[in-house]
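Last lecture ended with a question: if I hand you only a sequence, what can you say about the shape of the protein? Today we answer it with a concrete record. The protein is Protein kinase domain-containing protein. Below, first the input exactly as provided, then the predicted structure, then a couple of comments.
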Amino acid sequence: MEVAGAAIALVQAAEMAIKAGKGVVAIVIAYKHSDSRLQELSLRVEGIWLKTELQINVIMDIFSPHSEPTPWQERLLSFQYSCFDTLGSKLQSYLVKLKSLTGVDVSDGIDVYATPAITKIIPRMRYALFEKHIEGLVVELQRWQAVFDPSWYLLTRLVSPEVDKILEQTGSDTTVQTQTVSNLHDIRAIVRLTNQDTSRPHSDTVPQRKVPFLSPDSIHDQRALANEPGLQIGRIVDSDEVVVLDTTAYHEDSHPQTVATTVRQIARLLSIDDPFSMGFLKCVGLVKSNENQFIYVLALPKQQPVRLLRSLLYLPSPSLDAKFRIARNLAKTIMSLHAAKFVHKNIRPETVVVQDDGEGEMSQAYLVGFEQLRPDLGHSSLVADMVWQRNIYRHPSRQGLKVQELYVMQHDIYSLGVCLLEIGMWASFVGQNQQPPTSFDISEELKSKNPMKTATQIKARLIEKAETELPRSMGKKYTEVVLSCLTCLDSGATNLFEDEDDLYDEDGILVGVAFIEKILIKLDDITT
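The predicted structure:
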């Protein structure tokens, strides 16, 4: 599909989805006062549809048939067209079912928020089916949002003043405030800043929201989070709110102004209206520990216990639901970082905190350990370390004292793959004594004097583990996800992620769409 044709097809699919969606919502609203359950379901449908319709309209404005998207943006257009086409088909199916049950005739131009009168009473037998359809509709809309939202945030990577103008106009025209547009607008402002020279301040491009600097005395009751020196748990003095304290570890030769500017950019990203929806803990402040190091003060969404994933991997395996939930959370966060033009560079179980739901079940996982986080087009150090406990999460090309490649998103994807393998097996590749465990004994590989040979052999061991041990415990789809991550930088047929030559474009959109299709959607499709 050529670029212009893709834009036309996208708009047509979007218009059909909106038309069907308005009809469905109109019928749901017509019966929302029938009982308390339908009223609850109606509110959920209205809330999801409000966000969905807003997103669709923004996309249509950005990729109108009169716009001139770049060739590599066609991949994003094609993906979003598929999303709208799928949504339209599902909504049309529900519209037919609901019209058949209720006899309500919805006109094309109906105002879905002006509640129409009920035209017919639904027989009791049909009423139960009607309610069941609405419950199914809520589930389908939520699933669609889970698939579509990552591509929505990829819009932050489009370098276009027109996109900012559309978002600002949408925000001013929308009577109901939505975090969806607000978050996207703020992240784009941060991206604009990261594209400039970070050694000099650029106050005119900085989002209005500023993260306060806190005094070290404002945090008390500090204690280490397991054995990870850069992470602590503490409490804010005034509110007694429990927070995670995440200390940076920039190289001592780093320029102080560059470090300070980068830290402020990251803090602003972590302080958007709803960072939890993107997989982040909310940054509520910064503490300056010395000239080149800072502490991110990260609030927890609920005051429930948190533990590092590493310490949990030493315990008995949780439910399959919990393992899949942690995997999805991590993948979503990496996508969010990429959308905001950041790479993490330090993804491992020591930088993942898992929160309890209060009843002993692992509810949410959040990526922390932002000690090396930086803009993906920023300076990437080619100097690393030889710590094997960290190296096993690094791609071979990023190992050794003198690494071979600049850091890109695919290196984070590889690290994710190693973590997903551990989560699937529910086994730590680093023993409690900081030695290789018997289940992943790489002692012989570590004896080699050739770092590249060691790295390549360990990568092969990880792939072998995934191929032989994951299918029976986590299933085929999960295994494919892990292998796609571990081979994402391979060349040729062994790369299950995407053709390496097709992943490099000016906006970083191709690798983002590939990650959505090969990782996020497959994880969301897994059912237990």
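Comments.
1. The chain is about 50% helix and 10% strand.
2. The chain has three domains: 3-153, 206-303, 314-525.
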